[in-house]
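DATA SHEET
Item: assembly model
Revision: 1
Owner: S.N.
Input lines:
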Amino acid sequence: MLGSRLLENFDSALLPYAVAAVFLAFGVAYRYMVWVSAPGARRLFNQGWRSFFSVANFRKAPTALPRMIATYLGFQKFLGARSHARWAAHQLIFWGCVLAALITFPLTWGWFTFTSGTGSGPGYEMRIWGFKIIGFDSLDVLGWLMFHGLDIAAVLVIPGASYFLWRRMKDRGAITGQRFAYDLVPLIALIVISVTGLLLTFSSVFLHGGGYEFLAVLHMVSVVFTLIYIPFGKFFHIVQRPAAVGMQLFKYTARQDREVFACRRCEEPIDTGPYVDNLRATMRDLSLGFDEWAEYCPRCKRVLRGSAYLSQVKKGFK
Amino acid sequence: MMGRTIFIDPGRCIGCQACVSACRECDSHRGKSMIHLDYTDEGRSVASLPTVCMHCEDPVAPCAEVCPADAILVTADGVVQQADTTRCIGCANCVNACPFGVPKIDLQAKLQMKCNLCYDRTAYGLAPMCATVCPTGALFYGTVEELQAERPGVQVADIFSFGRSEVRTGVAMVVPADRMQWPVPGGLPVVEINGKDVRR
């Protein structure tokens, strides 16, 4: 409703999309609250925001946060370290979906409107919240781009999602433990949305609108299903990911202050001091009574366990 | 209740690293070994200890409990899976909370990896890679009955103590018969570090 000026430009044909968007908002809010209520998430959530709002941190490293947002959320460099092909495919899906969301939601609520005093051709105006932003000729390149934004998004998403779907059929690592509803349905949904969206354009350009109504319903159903699915399946990682930036910022600012925590036995660095304190507090919240063990590195834990077995259980491992 | 699982007998381990090499061949984490082989008293003893994920049952998977992203799934058969690549944020909570020191982390890829009991094999009734290649039987895959049929009189324990806490696991260790009713010491409280008594 916000910015739509009491739904002045609401397109009733888009009502199912609007209803799905409301479900999406409630679903995300519900899942988010459940998620950040768990001790591990809650403590990192608090520490992340504390680091974010710290004026001292901002003075020390003013570019840290924008850099992390760009490399971590935008260009997702960490995916490149997993596999270049997966990074490329994910970037296609990501930018395609960002473009589609930036078009779909504003259109659904009437935030964007296009007006023309001349019918097709020159004199088109794009308005956001009623204010004129840009004027263009609907038949020139800009006009074509404006009216084919969702087609471009579909062209980006289809190869990316198809690669992941192919990988889920062929890669034995990906196949191990994969679940249909969690791993395959999101990819199929993205492909169905994109293909039906492109077919709508195909129908209007080449078939004089033949089959358009059926395709529009199919496209609408797939989008509505996907929007409602977002909070409860694999797509929830979209909502979770920004928390990773908070976690990185929390660790980064402590490293800036040289607060590194070393293993009590081998003195190799484990992580930052505030991070270890935070983890120990999380473990106590969860009644895991061995939180002091977090002050030893994984290798020393194993060696100390081996020593205890050697001396107390099977003398000399006989 | 132990079903078909791994039984670790450090007394049989000769530190040959066959398990480490075989683990690297596992399809679910090709090229990276998830098993740890540590020499507990290097330079003075040849004793070595292979460590696979113990698949903690009670408390259920501390790694999954501390995960802020709900990335670690425990499947219905009790196997603690490695982190979901979509969700893992690479915070290392699981790495540092695991009482057995099992999970590994790739900080560049922001991804945790760990032994998943060769789920691509065990889900189809095959033994994990490490137990398949172990030449001495230090890593045995099967049921307790199968183990005892092969090694008469052997006993196993699946409870480990860490200070005043106890952890019951899905993977078990071979222990002498007289130690069966006691939890296996997990190394905490630490009594000695590099030859120095650190008991307070």
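QC remark: Chain A touches chain B through 62 residues (CB under 8 Å).
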